[in-house]
Amino acid sequence: MLVSLYAFLTVLIEVAGIFLALKAILIARTPQSAIGWAIALVIVPVVAIPLFLVFGESQFSGYTRAGTGGSAPLDNALRATSRHMDGYRAEPGGLCDDGTRVAENLSKLPPTGENAVRLLVDGEATFDSIFREIDAARESVWVQFFIIRDDRLGRDLSARLLAASARGVECLVMYDQVGSKALTPEWREKLVHGGVQVQPFITNRQHGRHFQINFRNHRKLVITDGRVAFVGGLNAGDEYMGRSKKFGPWRDTHMRIEGPAVAGFQIPFLEDWNYATKSLPVYRLRSCRTSGEAIVFPVASGPAEEWGVCPAVYLSVIQDAKHRLWLASPYFVPSSPLLYDICHAALRGVDVRIILPQFADHLLPWLSSFTYYPKLRAAGVKVWRYQPGFMHQKVLLADDDFAIVGSINLDYRSFMLNFELSAAVRERGFAADVESMFLADFDRSRPENLREFEDASLLFRLKCRAAALMSPEQ
């Protein structure tokens, strides 16, 4: 009897493995991923099946995007926002013209002019500016972070939100359930009792999607009164203020936006809030011309899209760069198109430089980055390793007038698995500020020997290659 049961279960598991192997071939993000999953699911199904259920899904289910017909309130919000922004439309031209067209065609939101933008370098400048706007808010405060901690910074954020709520300001807070897994129930309960609406973004909330946990909402966004927006790389925790004993000084970048572009940054928040709550808050479309001259458009991307805005914009900008392409990211695990476009830019004679952290906060992507050194070296790409503390910024600077600042890393996870948000800006003054920031970072970085991977020990190279095999899932 036990032998028959064992044989039945063995056959059942093998059949399930074959079925999922066929599914992997149909939905995998890359050919390598399809082959890897298919082989593992057929040969060792008892191990591969649970891993595939968690890590194998290529598209996020249960999420409704504005403009797709899945939600009338979201569609109405997108139409109203697009009409409003069209009154401030700017034709950027130059380097960001192709990227702008791609972004508008995919998101239905036009680029706008007359925006005032300011670069915010590191935690103190960022949260001083964010807290100042929260304290001044009169109607609404929307806060979204991948990570919120119940520590000194998190409690300071909580106190300001409670004070705003007591003034009658509508306060909404959203965080990623996985990223903020250490957030205490007490932090949330105190805000809720004070009238603040707090909502985790739970990826497997939808019925039948209990294994959909490999996706993350990685966005960092604060909007006050529908008038000022903040986007960038910082989360709400003490380590982002440089108070971590483990990482020491924390290097990061955020930015402040005021003007008609802010309306466009409300749409990804509305989509996320609608997914989490099945409702929409009141959104505000302000007549908000400023003395600024920046052309800005949101780069909001996520795994619920058929075509990702993030990779489309990045690849367009990299292909169009004429003389400079400077990139900063804590992780460098590029897809083949991204790697080859970066290398092709260098082969065209573009000054391509990449700043990466010296130290790892996540081992697998740090190891994977070394496997790309031979191709980068052959193409003439220059790599720096940032020395003091940990570098977490996500910034692109192209030529003399175009920059992207936000949450997008140069890896598979940002391009395929995460909900991300960045701001693309065309303005010479802002680009000059980004250039100055990069130059200061180069001074604190060490030029990397791009033969380091080939000259390393066999064991180190094997570890790097093994990590790179899992790059689409990191």
Describe the structure.
Helix content is 44%, strand content 21%. With 474 residues, the chain is of the alpha/beta class. The chain has 3 domains: 2-55, no CATH class; 72-89 and 111-295, Endonuclease, Chain A; 309-473, Endonuclease Chain A (Endonuclease, Chain A). It has a 16-stranded mixed β-sheet that branches. Helix 5 (97-107) runs antiparallel to helix 10 (309-320). The mean pLDDT is 90.
Keywords:
Endonuclease, Chain A; alpha/beta; 16-stranded mixed sheet; 474 residues; two-stranded parallel sheet; globular
Characterize this entry briefly.
By secondary structure, this protein is α/β, with parallel strands linked by helices. Helices cover 44% and strands 21% of the residues. The strands form three sheets. It has a 16-stranded mixed β-sheet that branches. Strands 8-15 form a two-stranded parallel sheet.
